[in-house]
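can u do me a favor
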């Protein structure tokens, strides 16, 4: 027995020597310990808590994903129990935002590029030329992963993304071939099972009954009017006198001040297509009568803003028969009494005011508008340019124009100069800035609003990361830029640092402690 033990001990010792850890064993025998520095991809316990807290506090818009906070644990920090669609949302959009500032630049850029690859690959509209660029970018991204992550990570699943861009180029958009429709329909088939001893027969009978009902409904629609259920965010007109969209919940009557009414009325006049000829007519008239307006464009637009409401009211009197009834009431102006709502549906999006505290976030909006821009406060040469504004909805108002109602979103906007910045490929906004610059222009039309949502860095920071989401239903008239979420800026390998493979600084972290063996 002792001889067998000695032989096993010699064999084990020889194996350890072959593995190259003899010096480590001798160090432990002598009472010394070895310090193992943290890897570049390693997160400390505090960083894991920050990562999970950002996911737990995340609130997306209606229909975007499930409640992610139900799948996140803060103590201990862990993630589990997510559906396949939630994994896609996490991989394509949430992961880079939640990971922001928690890793060194090298591995963080590699992870961001991988998420950006899947985000661009899963869009509803694909450009074959851009897919060719994606094929080369994913190879560079995989090289970055091999630089910062251990070899045990690279199994066959990490080789698969190399071929996905070519597959999309040959087969078209990905959503025609993925498994989500089949998974959803499997839930319908499973609901047909009443006798668990014969599940296939139950599914067959339920499917046959459903097909029969579908054919009967199709026949009855041609003879008997059958009311079909509306989709959740379908913006059918609930009231004939509301110009666009439909309000939600119960209306509250409010009385606007003269300044609030005039500000809202002026915005509607300036953003209604039927008023465009009259706007141009008024500008030409001001330039002809006033030399200062002809020389200075800033004075021209300031005078136009002050006088246009009164001018159009005199230009189109209410008793005129030469204009349409709607145009006459629009020129006449709204009442001081308006109605406010907590929710509104338009263009497939569900909007709600900022004071509605729910698991979803439907109050974020963005708007692109022409604005007078200048290089500095001392620059007198201003020019008009397209500027993107970000904000949250504070009030949803329906102005009463006697014969019809026009909806408006009153928003709190982030200041373009001080409240918006670009960092690490993300757009960050400060929603707690002073609103004095937007006192005379806080409104937008619902048709102009594009829904966004915000992810806050932490409770002490005033900055929010801007994120976009496509509408719940697909609209064929939308372009690629309108239906695609904002993609992250792709950074190349030379932005990370030294290319040397033996550079120890790219493989370990110096800003946190490792472990002692």
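np, heres the sequence
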């Amino acid at each position: 027995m002792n001889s067998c033990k000695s032989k096993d001990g010699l064999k084990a010792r020889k194996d350890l020597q072959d593995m190259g850890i003899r010096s480590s064993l001798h160090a432990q025998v002598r009472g010394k310990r070895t310090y193992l520095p943290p890897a570049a991809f390693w997160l400390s316990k505090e960083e894991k808590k920050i990562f999970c807290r950002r996911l737990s506090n995340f609130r997306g818009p209606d229909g975007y994903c499930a409640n992610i906070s139900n799948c996140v644990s803060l103590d201990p920090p862990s993630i589990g129990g997510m559906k396949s669609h939630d994994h896609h949302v996490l991989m394509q959009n949430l992961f880079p935002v939640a990971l922001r500032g928690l890793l060194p630049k090298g591995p963080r850029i590699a992870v961001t590029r991988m998420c950006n690859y899947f985000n661009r690959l899963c869009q509803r509209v694909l450009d074959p030329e851009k897919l060719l660029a994606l094929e080369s970018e994913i190879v560079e991204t995989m090289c970055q992963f091999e630089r910062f992550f251990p070899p045990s990570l690279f199994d066959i699943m990490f080789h698969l993304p190399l071929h996905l861009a070519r597959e999309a180029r040959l087969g078209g958009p990905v959503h025609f071939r993925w498994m989500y429709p089949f998974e959803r329909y499997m839930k319908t088939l499973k609901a047909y099972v009443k006798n668990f001893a014969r599940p296939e027969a139950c599914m067959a009978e339920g499917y046959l009954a459903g097909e029969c009902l579908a054919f009967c409904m199709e026949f009855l629609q041609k003879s008997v009017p059958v009311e079909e259920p509306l989709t959740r965010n379908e913006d059918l007109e609930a009231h004939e006198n509301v110009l666009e969209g439909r309000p939600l919940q119960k209306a509250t009557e409010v009385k606007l001040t003269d300044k609030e009414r005039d500000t809202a009325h002026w915005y509607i006049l300036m953003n209604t297509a039927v008023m465009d000829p009259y706007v141009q007519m008024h500008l030409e008239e001001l330039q002809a009568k006033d030399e200062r307006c002809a020389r200075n464009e800033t004075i021209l637009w300031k005078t136009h803003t002050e006088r246009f409401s009164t001018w159009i009211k005199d230009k189109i009197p209410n008793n005129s028969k030469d204009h349409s009834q709607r145009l006459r009431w629009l020129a006449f102006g709204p009442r001081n009494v308006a109605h406010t709502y907590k929710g509104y549906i338009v263009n497939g999006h569900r909007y709600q005011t900022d004071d509605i505290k729910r698991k979803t976030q439907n109050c974020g909006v963005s708007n692109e508008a022409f604005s007078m821009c200048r290089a500095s406060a001392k620059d007198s040469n201003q020019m008009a340019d397209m500027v993107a504004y970000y904000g949250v909805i504070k009030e949803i108002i329906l102005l009463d124009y006697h014969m019809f109602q026009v909806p408006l979103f009153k928003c709190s906007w982030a200041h373009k100069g001080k409240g918006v910045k670009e960092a690490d490929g993300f757009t960050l906004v400060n929603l707690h800035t002073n609103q004095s610059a937007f006192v005379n222009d806080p409104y937008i039309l619902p048709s102009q609003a594009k829904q966004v949502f915000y992810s806050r860095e932490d409770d002490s920071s005033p900055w929010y990361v801007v994120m976009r989401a496509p509408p719940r239903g697909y609209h064929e008239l939308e372009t690629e830029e309108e239906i695609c979420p904002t993609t992250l800026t792709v950074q190349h390998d030379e932005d990370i640092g030294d290319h040397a493979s033996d550079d120890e600084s790219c493989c370990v972290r110096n800003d946190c402690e490792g472990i002692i063996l």
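The first helix runs from residue 2 to 18. hope that helps!!
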